[in-house]
Known about the structure:
This protein is an alpha+beta fold. The protein is built from six helices and 18 strands. The chain has helices at 15-18, 173-181, 186-189, 231-237, 291-320, 334-352; strands spanning 28-34, 43-48, 51-57, 63-67, 81-82, 86-88, 95-97, 102-104, 126-129, 132-137, 161-169, 203-210, 218-225, 242-248, 252-258, 263-274, 277-286, 363-368. Helix 2 crosses helix 5. The longest helix is centred in the C-terminal third of the chain and has 30 residues, at 291-320. It starts with 14 loop residues before the first helix and ends with a strand.
Amino acid sequence: MDDVFPHANSNTAPAAQTSVDGAFVREQWYYALPSTALKPGAMVHRTLLGEPVLIGRNGNGAVFALCDTCPHRGTLLSRGSFDGREVQCPYHGWRFRTDGQCTAIPSQTEAQKPQAVDIRAKTYPVTEHQGNIWVFIGNNENAATADLPPVPEVPALGSHFQLHVSLRFACNIDLAVIGLMDPAHGAFVHRSRVWRSEGSIHEKHKAFSPLPESDGLGWRMDRHTASRNSKAYQLFLGSAPETEITYRMPSVRTEHAHTKKYDYCGLTACTPVNDHETDVHHVMYWNVPGGALLRPLVRAFAWRFLDQDRRAVMAMSEGLAFDPPTMLVQDADTQTRWYYRLKREVLAAQDEGRAPRNPITPTTLTWRS
Length: 369
C-alpha cells in the first residue's frame, strides 16, 4: 500500500489531509454559467462555495454579481425584479444598484435610520471571458479585476464558443476533481464498442511539467500524440491529434487537441455549491466545418460522457461512506497526490500571507489504460 486515499466521508483520514479534505479554496475565480444563459436585463441565482450569489446583466450588457440576500431580512433578491438598472427586493421593495448601493427603502421616513445611502449589498468581482462568466470568491469584495489572478481560459479558439454542458455531482469538490482527472478509468467508465473497450488497454508514458507561476498553481501533461484508443478524437477531428492538457488549482482542466487542419479545446471547471454538492461544467470549442450542425450530436455525446463520470464518482462516494481503508497506486494516482499537495500549499500560503510555491518537477508517468 503506497498511500491511504483521503476522502471527505472518512473519519480516519490522515492528519496531513484532514485540514484540506473538502475545504474550499477561496481567493479564486469560479465558473458560474455560460454567457449565453444570461440575457440583458436578466438575473439568476447561484450558490458558490456555500454563498448565495445573484448574477445579472444590466441593460447595457455588462455582468454584475451581488450577494443574493437582502441586508434587511435576508430575502433572496433574485426572487424580486430587475429593470436593467436596479434590483428590487420582493419583500419590502428595497432597491439596489448593480454596484450594491441601496437607492430606496420605501418603509422609512426621512427622519428614520437607516437611510438608503447607509446601506450597501455585498458585491463580487465578476468577469466574462471566452463565452463564460466567472465569479471571484474572496475576502475583498472591492478588488479590481486587474489586481486578481488571471481568469482561466482555453489556449485557442476562445472566441469560438460552441456549447456548454453541466451536471451536479452529489459530492464535495475534492471527490469531483480527482474522479474526473483519474487517467485509468476510461476503458471501464467510458467503455464503447466504437472507440474504447477493456481490450484496448495498453501501456502509456506521459511527460508532465509544472505550470509557470504566472499561469497559476498546477501542472501540464505535455503535448503528445493522442493514444490509439482515443478514437473519439479521430472521429471528430478527422485524424489523431496532438494533445496538451493542463490542470490549474483549484478546479480547472483545459485541453487542446490539434491536427494539421482542425482544433478542439475543452474547459472543465468544478464549482463547489456547498460541502456536499459540486457543479461540473464542460465547455467545448472547435473549428471543424459544419460545427453548428454538429452541436446536437456533440452535446448528447458530451452529456452522456459527463454523466458516466458522475455515476462513477457517485459509486465511489457511496463506497467511501462506509469509511473503508483505501490506497493510492503508482503512477496512475500521482495526479491525485499532486492535487492534494497543491491544495495544502495554496491554503497554507493564504494563511501565511505569501505566494504559493509549486513543488512539482518535470517527470514522466507510466500507467496502463
